[in-house]
Specification:
Helix content is about 30%, strand content about 20%. It is an alpha/beta fold and about 575 residues long. The strands form eleven sheets. An eight-stranded mixed beta sheet has the order 2-19-13-16-12-3-6-7, with helices on both faces. Strand 14 and strand 15 form a beta hairpin. The longest helix is centred in the N-terminal third of the chain and has 18 residues. It is globular. The termini are far apart.
Length: about 575
C-alpha cells in the first residue's frame, strides 16, 4: 500500500504504517484517488491521530489490549475462578453514635488535604431533561442545581480549615457535556469557586472492535465507530494530564470520587474520610446495606491462596459465586434482613500516595474488560461491534499485598439517593418493588437528611406521611435544608440547634456558618428561612414561627404536558410555592 497516496504528512504516514502493521489494512482499502473526498479523508486521519494521542500506548496499544481480552472472552475465562468470597473489611456507620462522631471529627481535619473528583459524562435525556444532569435542581424549594450544591460543599470544607485553601474540584466530562458544563460555570460565576481550583478533563471515545482479530470497525468509509470507554477513564485522565501527581505534590492525601446526581454524598464524606485515615485504607468504598438478590453490586473480599481482592461483584454474578463456594443457599439475609455483602454505590475515597504509584505503573489504564455479544456458538463473529471498557471501582484489581481496601457502610438514604429515572420508569420500578431513583425521590431524601440532622440534635421532628405523586413515593415534609455553609458535620448541628420542634408540613432553611437556634418552634404550614452573610451572627431564641410558609402544589395534567412548564418540574410532577 502506497502511503503517499493516502497522505503526504510524514507524521500521519508513520501512524498509518503502525496501523497497517497491526492488521488494520481494511481501514484504507478502496480509498478514492487524490482529489476525491479529500475533506472526509482528512477528518478521518485527524480522528485517528486524536484517539492515538489520547490513549496511553496509542491505537496499537488499544488493539493489542483488545486482542488479549477478546481471546480470554472467547475462551470463557471466569474472572472469579478459584476465588472464595468473604465479608469485606468494613466499618458500620449506619447509626449516629460516638463512633460516627469520632470518624467525622477525624475527617473534618482532613478537608485541607482532600480533592473531589466528579464523574459527569451524561446528559439528562433519560430523565426528560435536555441539559446536563448537573444543571437539574436537587431540590425546588430553593431551586439548587446539583453543581451548585457540590460547589457549596467545597466552599464549606474550605471555611472549616485551620488554614483555608481551595478544595481541588476535578470534573470528567464527555463530548456531550463538556461545553455545557463549562457554560454552567461561566454563567454562574463559577458558583463562588476560584476558576483555577476547577479542573475539567474531557473523556474521549474509543474505537469499536469488529472481530476477534481486533480489527477496528468502520461506520462507513473514512469514519470509525466510536463508543464510550467507561468511567474508569477518570484514572487515565488524571494520569495523562499529570494532575494526580501535581495534587500529590501540593499535599493532597485523599481523593473523593462522586457521581453527578447523588446529592447525599457529602453527608457521609467527613466520616468516610475519617475511616480512611484511621484504618489506613488505600481504597475505601462508601457503601449501603443491600437486600439479597437486589439489583445492586455487592462488595466482597475475594480470596485465592495468598491473593485477596476486595471488589464489586455484580448481583447476577454474586449469587452463583456464593452457591459454588461458601453458601449453597446463595446470597442469604442476616438477622436484619441484609446481605453480608454491602451494596456498591460507586462513591470512593482513594489514598493519593498509593494511587499515584499505580497510575505511573499502569499509565492510568485500569482493568479493562470486553463484553462481546457473539452471533454464533463458536464465538467467531459478533452481533455488533464491541469495545474495551473500564470502571473506576476496579482499581483494587491492581493492588498488591501492600495496599489496603475497605468498606464503610452508611444508612442508605443518608449517603445515597440517585436521580436517574424518568417519571414513567420510576413509577414502574416502584410498582415492581424496586427503588424509583427519580427527581422526586432524590429531593424527598434530600429533605430527609435534613430531618435526620435535626433529630440528631434533639429537635422534635414531626414527619408527614408518605404519598404518591404520579406513582412515585414522596414525603412532603418537613422540608429541611441545612446548607453546607451552616453545617458539614453532626457535631456542628448539635452545637447550633438546641431543642425546639418542627411540624410535618413546615419548612426550615439555614444558610450561614454562624446561625444558632434555641427552643424554636415552627408551626404547621410555616417556614423559617435564615441566610447570614459571612461573619454575620444570627441567634434565634424562644421563637414560635407562624406564617404562610411554602406549599407543595402538584402539576395539573395540562402543566405536566406543557412545554411552558420547566423540565425540572415536569420530571417531578410538582412545584413548591413560596406563599
Amino acid at each position: 500500500m502506497d502511503l503517499n497516496q493516502l497522505t503526504g504528512n510524514p507524521t500521519e504516514q508513520a501512524l498509518l504504517a503502525e496501523l497497517i502493521h497491526a492488521g488494520q489494512e481494511h481501514l484504507f482499502a478502496g480509498w478514492d484517488a487524490p482529489g476525491i473526498h479529500d475533506e472526509a479523508k482528512a477528518a478521518f486521519l485527524q480522528s485517528l491521530a486524536r484517539i492515538n494521542g489520547s490513549y496511553p500506548g496509542g491505537l496499537t496499544g488499544y488493539i493489542s489490549n483488545a486482542r488479549k481480552l477478546l481471546a480470554e472472552a472467547k475462551e470463557g475465562k471466569n474472572p472469579f475462578e478459584g476465588f472464595v468470597p468473604h465479608q469485606p473489611d468494613k466499618v458500620d456507620l449506619t447509626q449516629f453514635n460516638a463512633a460516627y462522631d469520632h470518624y467525622e471529627a477525624l475527617g473534618k481535619n482532613q478537608f485541607s488535604k482532600t480533592a473531589v473528583v466528579l464523574v459527569a459524562g451524561g446528559l439528562g435525556e433519560r430523565l426528560g431533561y435536555s441539559g446536563i444532569k448537573l444543571d437539574i435542581p436537587v431540590e425546588v424549594t430553593g431551586i439548587t442545581p446539583y453543581l451548585a450544591h457540590y460547589a457549596a460543599c467545597l466552599k464549606a470544607m474550605e471555611a472549616r480549615m485551620a488554614k483555608p485553601r481551595p478544595v481541588p474540584f476535578i470534573i470528567m466530562t464527555s463530548d456531550d457535556t463538556n461545553a455545557k458544563t463549562i457554560a454552567a460555570f461561566e454563567a454562574n460565576n463559577w458558583f463562588g469557586l476560584k476558576q483555577e481550583q476547577v479542573h475539567i478533563l474531557k473523556q474521549e471515545l474509543v474505537p469499536a472492535i469488529a472481530d476477534n482479530a481486533g480489527r477496528l470497525a468502520l461506520a462507513e468509509k473514512y469514519k470509525l465507530i466510536l463508543k464510550p470507554h467507561g468511567h474508569g477513564d477518570i484514572h487515565m485522565l488524571l494520569y495523562t494530564s499529570g494532575l494526580a501527581a501535581r495534587l500529590a505534590a501540593q499535599g493532597i492525601e485523599h481523593l473523593l470520587f462522586i457521581q453527578d446526581t447523588n446529592g447525599q454524598v457529602f453527608n457521609a464524606m467527613p466520616a468516610a474520610l475519617g475511616v480512611s485515615v484511621e484504618k489506613g485504607f488505600d481504597f475505601n468504598s462508601i457503601a449501603v446495606n443491600r437486600i439479597p438478590g437486589e439489583a445492586v453490586g455487592g462488595l466482597a473480599k475475594l480470596v485465592k491462596g495468598e491473593t485477596e481482592l476486595t471488589l464489586n461483584v455484580e448481583y447476577n454474578q454474586l449469587d452463583p459465586l456464593l452457591r459454588a463456594t461458601v453458601s449453597p443457599q446463595g446470597d442469604v439475609p442476616n438477622e436484619q434482613g441484609f446481605s453480608m455483602f454491602p451494596g456498591n454505590i460507586n462513591v470512593l475515597v482513594i489514598r493519593m500516595a498509593s494511587y499515584v504509584k499505580i497510575l505511573e505503573r499502569t499509565r492510568g489504564i485500569i482493568a479493562e474488560f470486553v463484553n462481546p455479544k457473539y452471533a454464533d456458538a463458536a464465538k467467531t463473529a459478533f452481533k455488533s461491534p464491541t469495545r474495551l471498557e473500564t470502571m473506576m471501582q476496579d482499581l483494587p484489581k491492581l493492588f498488591g499485598p501492600g495496599e489496603k481496601t475497605g468498606v464503610t457502610v452508611f444508612d442508605r438514604r443518608w449517603a445515597f439517593s440517585a436521580n436517574k429515572n424518568n417519571i414513567k420508569d420510576a413509577a414502574a420500578k416502584h410498582a415492581a418493588g424496586g427503588p424509583p431513583e427519580s427527581g422526586a425521590t432524590a429531593e424527598s431524601d434530600f429533605y430527609l437528611a435534613g430531618r435526620m440532622k435535626l433529630a440528631a440534635a434533639g429537635m422534635n421532628v414531626e414527619t408527614a406521611k408518605e404519598e404518591l405523586i404520579l406513582g412515585i413515593p414522596f414525603t412532603p415534609g418537613p422540608r429541611v435544608l441545612l446548607r453546607p455553609s451552616f453545617a458539614m458535620t453532626l457535631e456542628e448541628v448539635r452545637e447550633k440547634i438546641k431543642g425546639g420542634s418542627i411540624a410535618a408540613d413546615a419548612t426550615l432553611i439555614l444558610d450561614g456558618q454562624e446561625i444558632t437556634l434555641e427552643n424554636v418552634e415552627i408551626a404547621a404550614g410555616s417556614a423559617l428561612v435564615i441566610k447570614a452573610a459571612d461573619g454575620a451572627k444570627v441567634a434565634v431564641k424562644n421563637l414560635k414561627v407562624e406564617n404562610d410558609g411554602f406549599e407543595l402544589v402538584k402539576l395539573s395534567a395540562e402543566e405536566q404536558n406543557s412545554p411552558a412548564t420547566p423540565e425540572y418540574l415536569r420530571l417531578r410532577g410538582y412545584r413548591i410555592v413560596n406563599r
